[in-house]
Amino acid sequence: MSAGHRKLLPAFWRTHLAGRLAWASGRLPYPVQIVLGGLIGRFLYLSMGERREVAWANLSVCFPELSRAQRAQLLRRHFGALGIAVMEVGAAWWGSDEALARRARIRGMEHLDAALAAGHGVILLGAHFTTLEIGLRVLTARRPCHVVYRPLGDQGLEQQIRAWRARHRVTMVPREDVRGMIRALRENQPLWMAPDQNTASRHAVFVPFFGEPAATVPTLSKLCRRSHARVVPFVQHRLPGLAGYELVLGPALEDFPSGDSVADTARINQVIEVAVRRSPEQYLWTHRRFKTRPPGRPPLYPP
Fold first, then answer.
1. Which end of the chain is more exposed for a tag (fewer CB within 10 A), N or C?
2. Which residue has the higher pLDDT, 229 or 7?
């Protein structure tokens, strides 16, 4: 066995083991998934000290109106949502369409169909919620779509994820592949994007997110100018208890793009913020959303 193969073997087995565990979790009864997810969330809360500090910093900036006790409670609920998300991966990738359909309802599919009828493609405006995998799986059972993603460092895991998602009519497009995005839109395909993560790109603009300047690339506005695609907000929520999920597709944004990419990008952040406020514990607060700072602004996160 070559040195190269020996180096790749552990990564292969990690990917294989993760896949088998996800497969097994997807076959558990839904109530068991929720209970086990809550237990995983408690473990993550206790073990992920650095990410817990990041989430706390984000919540402190974005929800200054909450008391410290209220933010602490929200933080714990967030890690509970993260734990449940771990269990949901198996259901999203290997659960049957029938089982997921029983647990999820979709509102606003007519908005997506109306936007597609215009013939220029649709950008599904998403965000990084812990319910992301479930939301995409339920939606693509109705309509196949392309998904813009950030390539992973582990190529083996990335290839496996691409294969798992392709089984459910999801085509993954790297975020650097602008031509691939344009091609999907010109073929009148839905293209899911979540422009809500930090970037250090020189093309980024600082626009408010929960009142705090957030580095955001204006890609979505530029894509719409080039393709004439419509933008349809899309978000999914995990309902209380064992009620399942609700997917919400909103009306296509009017007067978008406006010709001002900064104003367009600020508007996108506002749309995402409204969705986050409905289910704040389900948003991905462990991400360093405000890592890139405007000149003169102090760092938000501990070194």
1. C
2. 229
Beta strand 230-238 pairing with 122-125: parallel
CA separation, residue 208 to residues 97, 216, 271 (Å): 38, 9, 12
What SS3 class is residue 237?
strand
Tell me the per-residue pLDDT of 201-243, one tens digit each, with 9 for 90 and over.
Answer: 888 999 999 999 999 999 999 999 999 999 999 999 999 999 9
In sign, the C-alpha dihedral spanning 284, 288, 294, 297 is positive
Report which residue type is found at 275: A
* Phi, then psi, of 98 in degrees rounded to 5: -65, -45
Closest CA to 302 of 44, 43, 52, 47: 52
| DSSP notation for 35-83 | HHHHHHHHHHHHH-HHHHHHHHHHHHHH-TTS-HHHHHHHHHHHHHHHH
Residue 96, pLDDT above cutoff 50: yes
CA atoms of 91 and 121, how far apart (whole Å):
29
Q: What pTM does this model have?
A: 0.90
Q: What angle do CA 36, 58, 84 make, to 5 degrees?
A: 10
CA–CA–CA angle 64, 69, 73 (5° rounding): 95
Give CA 236 to chain center in angstroms: 10
Q: Cα–Cα distance between 83 and 296 in angstroms, integer? A: 37
